[in-house]
Every structure is written in structure tokens, then in C-alpha cells.
Amino acid sequence: MRKPLIIGNWKMNLTVSEGVNLVKSIIDSGVDQLKVDYGFAPPFVALSEIKKYLNDSHILAAQNIYFEDSGAYTGEVSADMILSVGANYVILGHSERRHIFKESDEVINKKVHQAVKKGLTVVLCVGELLEDREAGCETETVLRQIALGVKDLGPDHMKRVVIAYEPVWAIGTGKTASKDDAEAMHRAIRGFISKLYSENIAKDLKILYGGSVKPENIKDLMSAENIDGALVGGASLNAESFVKILKFYE
Ligand code: PEP
User: Fold this and answer.
1) Contact at 8 Å (CB) between 207 and 190?
2) pTM higher than 0.85, yes or no?
3) Mutation pick for ligand 1 pocket among 5, 165, 171, 241 (CB with most ligand atoms within 8 Å)
């Protein structure tokens, strides 16, 4: 069985002390007892401080890495650097990286290779634009992003990949994909991975949903067979709403 997974993506929000206070109040609310793995994706500068409040069962994710080991890449952060401050996951291919920072599938693929080679678990984000959905090519778009994102990745490394399906039109907009639309996409993703790798890898693959997940819609979304958890943006910045989301797994 796939254990559910919830990760809060803070994006470019919260100072280090605000982040620490948030993490402390979430952990103090007793959520470690719940039947869910959970964790945080703070900005780089907060990773080492947040790590002090976590144990080995928590997830600490960076929001990006660069694909080279080290060198003259001003402003970039390497896999070894985030590992050295205790991160165990990295989010790659987030729609904000793809669209605002123009990251190509090729660059994302290089980052995926670098991350898994270094022992990180990757949350590979994929998702269609509203125009793709309106044109009826949302599945084709998402499966292409996955094929290019995991290109040349061996089966052992694929076991260290989580996929987050995040329709771009639902991120930070308050709009959520319907449970049926999300489930249809998650099922298509699992079927695709089964063909690309194996039934076993597909069966164990965690596929998260992301896009305006809130306490009010978590129950409905998580009732779908192929939705294994969520990548939560806005609602992860507030202890009360993030705890309410986690408490769905009571
Ligand atoms: C995200 O950042 O991945 C996300 C899904 O954001 P939000 O929950 O705010 O839509």
C-alpha cells in the first residue's frame, strides 16, 4: 500500500523565524501520530534551521537544485549543499520554475538525474495549462512532461521519484480540478509509468495532487484511488489549515 504523503511548498514566503514558528506549531499539534508522511519545502535559507525541529520521519524538501556538482554558477544551489543541511527531497519542475524561470524539460531532466544520483527523492511536478485542457490535450501534455522529465532514468532511480500532478490553472487560483478529472489524470500517469517501467514500479509510485488543496477539499480529492497525497502551497503557510489537512488522516 502507498502511504499518503503531504508536502507544504512555502515558495518564496516566510522568514526563517516565521518558518520555525510555523513548523513548531504544526508538530506540537500532534500530527506525527497520523497515518500520513508529511514535511515542508521551505526556501533554501531556512532548510538548516527547520531541520533542527524535524526527525527522520519528516520530509525536508528543497524547492530546486542545479544539475552541476559545483562551480561558477552564481545564485545556484547544488544537491550536495541541500543534503549537507539535512534535506532528503527536492521539488523539480514546478510550474513556477517552468513558466516564470523558463526551465525546459531538458534542464528539469538533468536536475532529476543529478538529484537521484545524489540520493535525494524527487517530487517531479507536471501539469497542463488551461489552454491545453480546453484543447483536450491535457493528458498528452502531462505524459510528455513525464517522459522528458524521467528520460534515461533507470528503474532503481525511478523508485526515488514522486510525481505531483498540478494543473497550472489550479495553482494559487482557488480553483481545484474535480476529483474525477484529477483521478483520470493520475490513472493515466500510473498506466504510463507501468508501460515505461513496470507494473511494480507503477504500483508503488506516489502521485500527489496539487492546486489549491485546502481543508475543505482534501477529503473529496483523497477519496480517489490513485491520489496518494498532496503538494500544498498557500494552505501550508498557516498552521491551522495545514494541520486540518493532515488531520484528514486521523
Ligand atoms: C504548489 O505550490 O505546488 C501549489 C499547489 O500551490 P497552491 O496550493 O497554493 O495552489
Assistant:
1) yes
2) yes
3) 171
Counted domains in the chain: 1
Report the CATH number that the domain containing residue 17 is assigned in CATH: 3.20.20.70
Quote the ligand 1 centre to 40 CA distance (angstroms): 13
119-168 pLDDT per residue, tens: 999 999 999 999 999 999 999 999 999 999 999 999 999 999 999 999 99
* Alpha carbons 15 and 22: distance in angstroms, whole number: 11
Residues with active-site annotation: 94, 166
* Residues of the domain holding 91: 5-246
Binding site membership of 166 for ligand 1 (Cβ less than 6 Å): yes
Pairing of strands 121-126, 89-92: parallel
Q: Which amino acid is at 86?
A: G
Cell of 151: 528520460
Instruction: Give Cα 237 to chain centroid, integer Å.
Output: 15
